[in-house]
Amino acid sequence: MAKFKHWLKEKRFWLIAALFLMILLGTNLAAYHLGLSRGSSPAKFDQEYDLTVPESLGREWNLFIEVLERMYEGYLYPLDLTELVSGAIRGAIEAVDDPRTEFYAPQELKNFLIQTTGSFGGIGVRIVEADDEIVVFETIPGSPAAAAGIFPGDRICRAGTEELSGLGVERAAEILRGEKGSSIALSIKRPGREDELNLTLVRDEVKIETVSSHWEQPGLGYIRISNFDSQTGTSFARQLRLMETGGLHKGLILDLRDNPGGLVEEAVKVAKLIVPEGEITRLVGRGGEVHAIHYSTARGKEYPIVVLVNEESASAAEILAGALQDRGAALLVGAKTYGKATVQQLENLSGGNALLLTVARYLTPSGKDIDGAGLEPDVVVEMPLLLRYHRYFLPGRLSRGDYGSDVELLQEMLAELGYQPGSKGYFDEATAAALGDFQSAAGLEPSGVFDDLTWIRLSEAFAEIARERDPQLCRAVELIRQPGRWPDLGGKVN
Fold first, then answer.
1. Active-site pick, 250, 272, 301, 340
2. For residues 115-138, average pLDDT
C-alpha cells in the first residue's frame, strides 16, 4: 500500500475539495452561543477607524496601528484598506497557531452557517473537481437535483451564464446555491451521451441528513452519524426510537467514523439518550474554571453498544465516544481518534464578518483531556486504505500508455474485484483486458478505456464489497454476538 499512500499525498488538495460540501469543519461549536454571540465593532481608520488606543493593550497596540498607518499612507501603490485590515486580522489569528480559531468574511460565514444548520437553498448535489471540471459526486435524496434525474458522474458545464470549468468547487457551489424558489439553468455532460443535457431546476431548501440507520441483521441495529448539526439530536432520537420499538434487542452499532464534529449541544442530546445516568462531559476555561457540566439522566441500555471510530473521528464525536467509553456503556472499535478537545464560540463582528474563537476545552467523565492524544479504542482494528478511500478516486479518463498512481489505484481496485491487471502503475494491454472484462460484467461496452461511465459502475461495485469486507464493522458484529466476553477482553485487543 506504499504507492496508495503516495497517491493520497498527491491527491491531498483534491480530497479537501471533494469533502468541501460533505463534512463539517473539525470544530466543536458552542451551540448555545450560535446566533447569540457577543457583538463588537472594530476600530475605525481615519473616517472609518477610530485610533483610540485601549489602555489594556499598551504599546503593542500602538505599534500595530503605527505600522498600519505607515503602510496605508506611504506605500508606493494604493492599498485597499479592507484587504489590509483583513490581512492583519488573519495574520493575528495565524500567530495564535490554533487552526480552529478562524476569521470569516461574509461569504465564508454564510458557508459555515450552512454546515452548522444542515440546510441551505440550492439544487442538492455534492460536487468535486476532476480535470478542472465540476462533477456530481452524489445527489441528496429528495432534492431538486434528485427529482430532475441528475446522477453521480454528471459534469456540470454551465450554470446560468457561468462556465464552471476551472472555477473550483467553492465558487461553483456558490453559483449553484441560491434562494428557495429561484431557478437555474444547467448544461450537463452525461457519461455515455454525446450531446449536452439542458435542465432548468427550481432551487429549494436542501436538508443534509446527518443520521442514517438500517438493520444489520434482525435485532441488531446500525446508526451512523456523519456530523453534528442543528438537526442531529432530533434525528437520532427518532431513528433510535423506531429501532427500539421495532425489535432492537441484540445490540446497536454506532458508527462515528470520519465524523469531524460540529455542535456540542447536539452531541450532548445524543449522549443523553444512550449514556447512563451521570456526567457526559465538562467544559473548562483557560484557568481551569468550569464553564459547564453536562449530565445524562438516562437508564443504561439493556442491549450492548459498539461504537466505531477512526483517525477522523473528532471533537463532538469524541465527546460522545469518550462518554460512552468512560461510563462503561459501550466498546470502542477501530483506530485511535483524532484528538480535538477544544470548543469554539462564534463572535459576530461588524460588516457581516465573524470570529470563531476557541474559548474552552472539554474533559471526558473520568477527567481525561484528550486534546492531541485522542481516544484509544478498546478493540483495535485497522482499515485497509483502499477500502477507506476508494470513494474519492475520480482520475478522469485513463487508457493504454498512461501511468502513475491513478493507474495503480485502478489496478488495485480491479484486483480486489477479482480481475487480473498488468504491470503496477502502467496501463498496459493486460490492464485494458481486465478493465474490459469488468465493463462487460457491468453491462458496458468493453472498450478497455476508463471513462466516467466506467467510474460510476466501478464505484458502485467497489462500495458493495467495501461494506462486505469492512473489518471494523465485521469485528463489531462479532463482539455484539458475544457481549458476555467483554469484561474479559483484558484491555486493548488487535
1. 340
2. 82
455 grid coordinates? 467510474
Quote the pTM value: 0.81
The position carrying cell 454546515 is 115
Task: Provide the 10 A C-beta neighbour count for residue 105.
Answer: 16
Which amino acid type is present at position 47? Q
Domain boundaries, the chain: 119-207, 211-380, 386-468
| The predicted structure's pLDDT at residue 56 | 62
User: What pLDDT is recorded for position 9?
Assistant: 47
211-380 falls under which CATH superfamily? Answer: 2-enoyl-CoA Hydratase; Chain A, domain 1 (3.90.226.10)
Whether 28 has a pLDDT exceeding 70, the answer reads: no
Joined grid coordinates for residue 352:
457581516
Q: Which entry of 226, 296, 313, 315 is annotated as an active-site residue?
A: 315
CB-CB contact of 313 with 331 (8 Å):
no
Set of cell numbers at residue 58 = 499598551
Q: How far is CA 1 from the centre of its chain?
A: 24
Is 269 a catalytic site residue?
A: no
Higher pLDDT, 266 or 30: 266
326 among known catalytic residues: yes
Q: What is the pLDDT of residue 132?
A: 84
Assigned CATH for 119-207? 2.30.42.10
- Of 154, 204, 258, 326, which one is the catalytic site residue? 326
Distance CA(294)–CA(282), nearest Å, equals 6
User: For the segment 395-433, what is each residue's pLDDT rounded down to a tens digit?
Assistant: 878 999 999 989 999 999 999 999 999 888 999 999 999
Q: For residue 332, which of 270, 256, 281, 243 has the smallest C-alpha distance?
A: 256
State the DSSP H helix or E strand holding residue 215, giving kind and residue range, or none if neither.
strand 211-217
Q: Closest by alpha carbon to 18, among 159, 135, 117, 100?
A: 135
Strands, E assignment, 264-353: 278-284, 290-296, 305-309, 331-334, 342-348
Which distant-in-sequence residues (6+ apart) come within 8 Å of 475 by Cβ?
333, 379, 381
Is 456:438 a contact under the CB 8 Å cutoff? no
Mean pLDDT across the stretch 51-68?
70
340 catalytic? Reply is yes
Distance separating alpha carbons of residues 164 and 113, to the nearest angstrom: 24
CA angle at residue 141 from 138 to 147, to 5 degrees? Answer: 95
Q: Is the C-alpha dihedral spanning 313, 316, 321, 326 positive or negative?
A: positive
Q: Tell me the average pLDDT across 246-251.
A: 95
> How crowded is residue 352: how many other Cβ atoms within 10 Å of its Cβ?
12
- Rounded Cα distance between 63 and 325, Å, is 50
In CATH terms, the fold of domain 386-468 is: Muramoyl-pentapeptide Carboxypeptidase; domain 1 (1.10.101)
pLDDT at 61: 77
The C-alpha atoms of residue 443 and residue 445 are separated, in whole angstroms, by 7
Query: Is 165's pLDDT higher than 50?
Result: yes
